[in-house]
Amino acid sequence: MTARRAKFIDEYLIDLNASQAAIRAGYSARNANVEGARLLANVSVSEEIARRGAIQARRTGYNQERVMREIAEVASSPESKMPEKLKALELMGKHMGMFRDNVTVSVEPPRIIDDWSGAPSGADARG
């Protein structure tokens, strides 16, 4: 594995942001989103991220399930104040993909027809 890919993995594990990790690892900011996605799709990179994530979960005792369980406890606890409940619900919603900040819209540009052979000629158009 190259030094830059290893740096990408280190940086990605900080905040799980592939674009920013690519920039911090020395990839071009202009193509960071493409490079980040390409690196995450790389088998050796994704395997190393998974391996190190598992080590971190064992070391800290926290994994996705435990974090979600504790967030749910805060959200449903009668002792929690409203801001705490809202933050807990927001975190659960984000985890489940309920909120999308970026929406991709695909629109085809209109077609301009300069010569429409099916159009009636001047005399025929008047009837």
- N- to C-terminal separation? 76 Å
Shape: flat
Q: Mean pLDDT across all residues, rounded?
A: 84
Q: Identify the CATH homologous superfamily of the largest domain.
A: Terminase, small subunit, N-terminal DNA-binding domain, HTH motif
Provide the low-confidence segments as ranges.
none
Largest sheet: none
| The CATH topology of the largest domain | Arc Repressor Mutant, subunit A
Question: Helix and strand succession?
Answer: HHHHHHH
The portion of residues assigned to helices is 55-70%
Tell me the CATH architecture of the largest domain. Answer: Orthogonal Bundle
Number of strands: 0
The CATH class name of the largest domain reads Mainly Alpha
Describe this structure in words.
The structure is a single chain. With 127 residues, this protein is mainly alpha-helical. The protein folds into two domains: 61 residues, Terminase, small subunit, N-terminal DNA-binding domain, HTH motif (Arc Repressor Mutant, subunit A); 40 residues, no CATH class. The protein contains seven helices and no strands. The longest helix is centred in the middle third of the chain and has 18 residues. The chain is flat. The model has no long low-confidence stretch (mean pLDDT 84).
In short:
The protein is mainly alpha-helical.
Quickly list its features.
127 residues, mainly alpha, Arc Repressor Mutant, subunit A, 0% strand
Set out the fold topology.
Elements: H1 3-15, H2 18-24, H3 32-41, H4 43-60, H5 64-76, H6 82-95, H7 122-126
